[in-house]
Amino acid sequence: MTWNSRKDWMAVLAKADPARLAALMPDLPAHSFLRSPEVGAVMVQARAGGTGAPFNLGEMTVTRCSVQLTDGPVGHAWVQGRDARHSTHAAIMDALMHTPQAAALGSGVLDVLHREAQAARQARTEKAAATKVDFFTLVRGEDA
Amino acid sequence: MYVAVKGGERAIDNAHAWLAEERRGDPSVPELSVAQIREQMRLAVNRVMAEGSLFDPDLAALAIKQSRGDLIEAVFLLRAYRTTLPRLASSHPVDTGAMAVDRRISATFKDLPGGQVLGPTFDYTHRLLDFKLAAEGTVPPAPQTATTAAPVPHVMDILNRDGLIEAATPDNTLPPDLTREPMELPAARALRLQAITRGDEGFILSMAYSTQRGYGRTHAFVGELRIGHVAVEVDIPELGFAVEIGEIELSECETVNQFSGSRTQPAQFTRGYGLVFGQSERKAIAMSLVDRALRWQELGEDFTGAPAQDEEFVLMHADNVQATGFLEHIKLPHYVDFQAELELVRRLRADAIALQEAAE
Asked: Is the pLDDT higher at A79 or at B264?
């Protein structure tokens, strides 16, 4: 898959398993922090009735950080949880996607993460499908 | 005169050291890891996240370990931690219609698009203790049925088409936040929903049950119950657009309630709504019943004096951290207060006895 949209790759990086992302990025390029990893909370909103007026459901932990590669590009990350390394890897990856390495990293990292996430999601969907109820009508007395 | 008294430091330190030892239990039994609690006590983790109002399974599992399984204490720990976090943003409202569902059932329609999906449920188990679990063993993988993920529409949309049920019309008013502003009554529905979703499960369950037993009856059907994962999207200020920052598990319940209509509205069904962090379906169902009961005023129904209709009663007593804080504080030293009461009782008795003696 081609990775043109920053929104798409940031989502994949944010939802990636931190250990898996780290394993896919063994060598980090030289970088400095514009904002060191910072743990905070995001208030999750929902809507009454699913579609109505918004209300505050509760918070979730997030970590954000911004990096600058030595050769220029800036990368940002907002990721769920409190893993500083996860946010650092995601921000560096975001910066690298603005370099000529983008195509290689797209297939070497993002495609892998995307594929694995899809496979995990598909497995859950198929387990759920196996619990779908097939109704059948019993023969009624008067029909016999 | 107020006299400050100090003391007990050594006793407190020793009590906490003993607490740590008791928490660990018999050292010949392997210690629980946080990951084990997170994975194998997941419904307890969900409850602590919901009532702690912070979605972070690792922290909730740690809190359960630290609290020795006292879930209200764990909720307290999570709430305390939460206050140390800066609020970085508010998310876009999550789209539960786009949920990747693990479970989705309707008690009102048998055949519905997407089907009745049971998911990993306790329903239809026999509630017999399973002694196989006492022995360690591997679990065979759950069966899978090949399928392609398809959107699972909300059941309410089906009723909505015919105008048989009140609509939940989108609007974008900024919701009130009880973690920022003290709760004020009367509360808007948005504030009530926030208070109920973080309220004590036992309390919300009992309130909901009371409506079923006739104290503010609302004739509820579970129109739909769904559990699954939704993406959380946040506007990133550095970028100027919204990005998915993660996924959370939610339980959502929508009730369909009888409503005979009023002078201004034709008869139609009304709705109650429950949405809770994690797989917490009892809480989600209970929340939707309590939400509906509290809506009596906007729907022009009668106030029957039922506890579940009484907004102040429900909202001011639903929070177990507040409740336990006030309840348990009475065990802490009140020596001076009590001394004053003791003096008073002694004086009243002395006066009464003196009067009695004078009369004789």
From this structure: A79
